[in-house]
Specification:
With about 130 residues, the protein is mainly α. The termini are far apart. The protein contains 6 helices and 2 strands, in the order H-H-H-H-H-E-E-H. A two-stranded antiparallel sheet has the order 1-2.
Length: about 130
Amino acid sequence: MPSSCKDIRAALAACLQSSDCVMIDRNKPSDCLREPLLSTMPTKCQQLKKGYGECKRGMVDMRKRFRGNQPIAVSKELEGAGGSGESGKGYQLYAGKPAFADTARETAGNEPEERDWREVENEKFRKG
């Protein structure tokens, strides 16, 4: 199995093993992933199942053929949210740094709105 989906697969397996469907009701994990038992699973497991399906689908998607699937960062979740990695802003690495991390700056929402360049030029024209 290619390594692009192994993290989310491991997270899904861990979620299934700790769910009530397997631990208390003693169902097989494969049965818990199908209806009607899927609706009794925790939301986290349902999301992981959906993400794993999308990851597997992305492996055969020709549009993602050259780039591959985006790495899914669930290993921090499995290891207790520890780690010295990036803050999750960019996925692709370019020369050791995230490629898209610094493209947009964060705002607080109370910054003054920048004036349009046409308004500035019109003021200069009217004054001079």
